[in-house]
Amino acid sequence: MDYSRQIVAIGKKNHEQLREKRAAIVGCGGLGNFSSLLLCLSGINLVLIDHDNVGASNLHRCPLFSERDIGKNKAEVLAKRLREHNPGIDVTYITKKAREEHIRDVDIVLDCTDTFATKYLLNSMCIKMEIPLVYASVSGYDGQVMFIHKSACLRCFIPNGSDNPCGVVGAIPAVVSMISSVQVMQVINFFIGGKVLKDEVFIYNAKRNAFYTVEVKKREDCKDCGTKENAMDFLTIQPCKAKAAFSIIPKKMHVIQKWEDVDKCEQG
User: Fold this and answer.
1) pLDDT of 198 higher than 70
2) 169 CB neighbour count, 10 Å cutoff
3) What distance in Å separates the CA atoms of residue 225 and residue 40, rounded to the nearest whole number?
4) How many angstroms separate the CA atoms of 28 and 111, rounded?
5) I want to staple 48 with a disulfide (CB 3.0 to 4.6 A). Which of 73, 75, 113, 177 is the partner?
6) Residue 15: is its pLDDT beyond 60?
7) How crowded is residue 264: how many other Cβ atoms within 10 Å of its Cβ?
8) DSSP summary character for residue 23
């Protein structure tokens, strides 16, 4: 693959660093499709992990799946498509639920799952194994991204999240792709020494065209990384409506006015 345009943007040395890295994507649905494709096109080697099969309801937000894939394992199908896009990277897949041995040899993990049980499992495993984790979640018009490594973790942010079967708020492909782009840039920035969302959460609401970053502090009572401070004074978290989805109302925030002004945040 010709990476010349990427090399112009990030430099040859940084590009070569990316080519040596390996990322694990846990969850190969909507977020996993978009994030894996972006990493693939960036030249990063991949491990895809998902025990589930492609369903008809996945297709509208999974650009690498088609109707002929229904009933097949998501990770296996995704690996095949990514190899076609970029034969120059190494892509492996695992058709089981994520376990420690599956991520032992990777440089970073992307959480593209949709249940709190799995998200908390990844949070715990990555902290224990000292592997960077990039959490992402999408619900309707809302999405969140957080970088976790020697910092506040998912349980500091949401100590007791639960999956509420009362309804489904759905997923919008454009929101999924937006959150995947932010998630993948966390990976790239980490590998080349750029800024990551450490001790803060990026929040996007497409309906209001709003972007926020909210500070998250380590919690003394955190089950996974517990230290001294309580993050929940910063947030109001509304009840879940579907799987690992939630809405967040920041009480204190940095408002990102424009993408080009991302480094010039104002106090909300």
Assistant:
1) yes
2) 17
3) 31
4) 10
5) 75
6) yes
7) 10
8) E
Read off the tokens for 212.
């926020």
- What band does 203 get if pLDDT is binned at 50, 70 and 90? very high
Cβ atoms < 10 Å from Cβ of 255: 13
Distances (CA, A) of 53 to 28, 29, 60, 72, 232: 9, 9, 15, 5, 36
Q: Which of 138, 225, 129 shows the shortest CA–CA distance to 175?
A: 138
Residue 255: strand pairing partners = 212, 266
Domain ranges in the chain? Answer: 4-267
Radius of gyration in angstroms for the set of CA atoms belonging to the chain, rounded to a whole number: 18
Task: Quote the percentage of the chain above a pLDDT of 70.
Answer: 81
First to last CA, the chain: 43
* Cα dihedral sign, 133-135-136-142: negative
What does the alpha-carbon distance between residue 248 and residue 160 come to, in Å, rounded to a whole number? 15
Distances (CA, A) of 179 to 107, 124, 142: 21, 22, 9
Strand 133-139 with 142-148, pairing = antiparallel
Closest CA to 49 of 78, 22, 27: 27
Q: How far is CA 55 from CA 60, 74, 104, in A?
A: 10, 9, 29
Q: How many CA atoms lie within 13 A of 228 on its CB side?
A: 0
Q: For residue 250, what are its two tokens? A: 């920041």
3-class DSSP state of 128: helix
Residue range 4-267 forms a domain whose CATH class is: alpha beta
